[in-house]
User: Fold this.
Amino acid sequence: MKKRILSGVQPSGNLHIGNYLGALKNWVTLQKDYESFFCIVNLHAITLPQEPEKLKRKTLELARIYLAAGIDPKVSTIFVQSDVPEHAELAWVLTCISRMGELERMTQFKDKSKGKGESVGVGIFTYPVLMASDILLYKANLVPVGQDQKQHLELTRDLAERFNRDYGETFVIPEPYIPPVGAKIQSLQDPMKKMSKSDQDPNGSIFLLDDADVIRKKIKRAVTDSGTEVKFDKSRPAINNLLTIYQLVTDLPAEECENRFVGKGYGYFKTELAEAIIEFLRPFQQKVRSYDEQELIETLKSGAEKARSVACQTLREVYEKMGLNYAS
Ligand code: AMP
Ligand code: TRP
Assistant:
């Protein structure tokens, strides 16, 4: 039996190359060896206010992005979180075994609640419990994500272990899969900050749907460090980040990337980097608009059916163990 993976992205904001290089690219590789579930986590998106029509459009757009990135619906299950009600049901059960302290320690919660005081949304607080539910429902062995999700995965493991200890062996304890290169792509405008969908400044990110001229402009404007050499060097975070992006989009060994720019300077490097990103995104961008909407909806429907057949078995098992399956 193949081992399982599950991962997800929120259908809010615009996906950037950090999402692609840190997450999606690895899903495509892993789907060959694992039974794979890729979720569009719209229930996570509503932890912040969303316009209903826009959320719907963004959900379908994300499905197109999954397909264009190379997720094959014949091999992997692609589905929308809210189409499988067991996610919200298991999340409640897990909420009841979670502790305030462990959720308060989540750095993402701390960042998102900064300055909001008592008005911070409860959904932002319990967000990682819903994420744990997504993963544990499918008994996933591996969860491919970027570095920023590592702490949420540790919480997922703790909740699974707690449940197994209190109610008997039920959940698989999942491992994170964090890629060795690309797990944390930084902002083009501030190399100390991660490239983020919620960044107010669009110049900090290359979005997957940016056209060639926009990409050239953003790379031209990207901040650099003092010095002139194009080398991997953690003490020069801006160039290190740009070179990491170059390495990932060209798939070249690190040394070869450096060799190409010996004695060439930042200007030349930036021009080459912009063209490499444009080339890398070209086939993806051509595909992304090519899917028929009706077919897309059919793919999501059959994905939800497949996902549900697994999710409802796990939930039934959980309810039985907790003495909750009274009438069924
Ligand atoms: P999000 O943008 O928070 O919905 O993230 C979706 C996926 O992309 C998650 O697996 C994140 O860990 C990953 N991700 C987000 N930002 C970055 C980044 N700057 N570098 C690498 N991976 C990222
Ligand atoms: N929290 C993740 C993010 O912001 C998205 C997510 C929700 C997820 N559920 C998941 C990722 C389950 C992996 C597995 O990126």
Notes: The first strand starts at residue 4 and ends at 9. Residues 293-322 form the longest helix (30 residues).
